[in-house]
Design brief:
It is a single chain. The chain has two helices and five strands. The protein is α+β, with helices and mostly antiparallel strands. It starts with 18 loop residues before the first strand and ends in a 14-residue tail after the last strand. 21% of the residues are buried.
Length: 142
Amino acid sequence: MAKTRPRRDSAFDPSASLRSHDISIRVRYCECDPMGVVHHANYAIWFEMGRTEMLRSEGGNYRDLEAAGRFLVVVDLAIRFKQPARYDDELTLTTHLLEASRARLRHGYELKRGSTLLSTATTSLACVDGEGSLQEIPIGSD
């Protein structure tokens, strides 16, 4: 039986979310090109901020994961750009946990300016040790 790969489609159904978390972002000048449009590389950084804050809101943090010798690495990222974000925009990023298994997480993202949807994205993360071997995601405190 062939293994299935994560979908590389940034579109997702937010109603399928296991849970979600919002953060606010104000676009900084350094994130923009000379026309005042956010450079596409910044979106991945914002999505990481969303995942980090979602974890923090649930009482966890990456520092504790790393101290346990576990690292969450992005193995897939898909972004769909619908409208540009611009300098000084006030944005809301909603991060959705779409799937969780023993060693992998899948998140979905919606970036909005007010009610206007600017982009959607998905990421798949794997939990690995320092040598890159797949590991279980530690749950709770030991």
